[in-house]
Write a structure and sequence with these properties.
With 121 residues, this protein is mainly beta. The chain contains no helices and 11 strands.
Length: 121
């Protein structure tokens, strides 16, 4: 089994910064893409940022230039640095990893438990 544990998040004023981290543990052979998603009340879960094993990153248009995703492959950890936060960034943020437990397996999606990010005016 693969477990993702998130940390960070919290309450911040608009214009402030927060950092999230997510560590994957368990029986892991390799992890392909890792990413962050978010879900605001009454809305569907949406992709925030995704990063490949090689470090190529993609971002939602709404966070480009403000958020930075990075990863440490040796630690199976992904990070999200969030700057210039806006009230509309308020959501529960979920970590995702496409991981395989054996060489010959396809990847499966694993999710963290979610961490609340609240941005006040």
């Amino acid at each position: 089994q693969v477990h993702l544990v998130e940390s960070g998040g919290g309450l911040v004023q608009a214009g402030g910064s927060l950092s999230l981290s997510c560590a994957a543990s368990g029986s892991i052979f390799s992890i392909d893409a890792m990413g962050w998603y978010r879900q605001a009340p009454g809305k569907q879960r949406e992709l925030v940022a995704l990063i490949t094993q090689g470090g190529h990153a993609n971002y939602a248009d709404s966070v480009k230039g403000r958020f930075t995703i990075s990863r440490d492959n040796a630690k199976n950890t992904v990070y999200l640095q969030m700057n210039s936060l806006k009230p509309e960034d308020t959501a529960v943020y979920y970590c995702n990893a496409a991981a395989r437990q054996r060489l010959w397996e396809r990847t499966y999606d694993y999710w963290g438990q979610g961490t609340q990010v609240t941005v006040s005016l």
